[in-house]
Amino acid sequence: MSRYVGAIDQGTTSSRFIVFDKHGNIVSVAQKEHKQIYPKPGWVEHDPLEILANTSEVIGAALARANLTASDLAAVGITNQRETTVLWDKATGKPLCNALVWMDTRTDQLVQRFTKDGGQDRFRAKTGLPLATYFSGLKLLWILENVEGARKKAEAGEALFGTIDAWLTWNLTGGANGGKHVTDVTNASRTMLIDLATCDWDDGMLKHFNIPRACLPKIVASSAVYGEMETAPLRGTKLAGMLGDQQAALVGQTCFAPGEAKNTYGTGSFLLMNTGTDPVQSKAGLLTTLAYQFGDEKPRYALEGAIAITGALVQWLRDNLKLFDVAPQIEPLARSVEDNGDVYIVPAFSGLYAPYWKDDARGVIAGLTRYATRAHLARAALESTAYQVRDVVEAMEADSGIKLAALKTDGGMVANELLMQFQADILAAPVVRPKMTETTALGAAYAAGLAVGYWQNVEDLRANWGVDKTWEPKMAEDVRARHYKSWKKAVQRSFAWVE
Predict the structure, then answer these.
(1) Are the CB atoms for 227 and 172 separated by under 8 Å?
(2) Considering the entire predicted model, what is its pTM?
(3) Comparing C-alpha atoms, which of 367, 372, 369, 365 is closest to residue 348?
(4) Are the CB atoms for 251 and 223 separated by under 8 Å?
(5) Can you say which residues are annotated as belonging to the binding site for sn-glycerol 3-phosphate?
(6) Which EC number(s) does UniProt give (predicted)?
């Protein structure tokens, strides 16, 4: 009997491989960052071959650290940065260009082209998504229109499209020698090319965007055996789970009942609420998306509030403004002042996502006086994350009719206790950090383990979940209202910056 399950966690800034035991504990982990490529303002790219090489490297390193081999793993799952778009040559396996990252805004002209005839929400009823630079279908169209030879190859089925899950799966299961070209329902739901009701590619959307069906992957369940790995050191291991990173965190947080929600604080932040077997159309600026599909069960849906920039704002203060040397230093710096000094940062570096969907917004720092210091900027940066989450929570409560009882959190920023307390304060609701905060990788492991019987059912997974710490709100209501009013004013200042 194989003792463990593995998860490839391919994120925006790094690739990791984590091995979990039956109780959801980490047995071994390895991680490697990849390069962020910025060819022009608003353009963000990754090298897919670098990501593939790093993924292979971290798999080997994590196994070696725990003295494990492929036979020790019952299955492996993949979770990935969603919407990041790759088009590659089927014969050679070489990408036709760098991957267009989810936060890349070069498709803004395409968004305007399609918005002219019917507005931003013209496809929302079918796809659950507004027209925005975020989603992968328009990124694929940009490649087809701007990379020489791409359309001809895609129409002939000689070039294959995928988000990072599909790119890794194809390569790990054989590549040009019979690799499986598949994507799961959660990643497919972020393309703007599927009908949410059928979970299949929609002929109407393909026609609207002029996308050839020949280049598209087969859509599969999030938990199923897709094939065996063909490359060392995992040759022969079943690849059996696939989830976009935020849906994976929802699974890792065991949010299996309608109304259960989680927020992941990463490069961006993403709040998802399980809405059960029926898609809920948002009237408050949220996304309707697939949550997961286990085997032959009915797919489950979610409402999602996607925030583009949260942890990335901390990186920007570190790398661009040189306010501190390493990210954890932001907390003591922010704690060195009592409050934000009336400074508010709206990090609309690539527009604003939920619930505003303003591609023309850009970042602002509001309320500056001679009193403000770098400590006030640090505090304002952390607080901007909490304000953006509140914006999304209010939209979610309006759409679902469900009042948030408590917020389950995960991701890198949950180690910041100042942020967690301020989040509870500004939400006026408890904020809960689980014992296992690596819930994204854990969700991919859970999906893979369920597919091969390593775990029997979702109750096995629920039994693994435990609370590390809970923050209760302490802020007076009048203070909360004043802060939030100022935040909303600052957000308004960021609109319509790009002509």
Answers:
(1) no
(2) 0.87
(3) 365
(4) no
(5) 12, 82-83, 134, 245
(6) 2.7.1.30
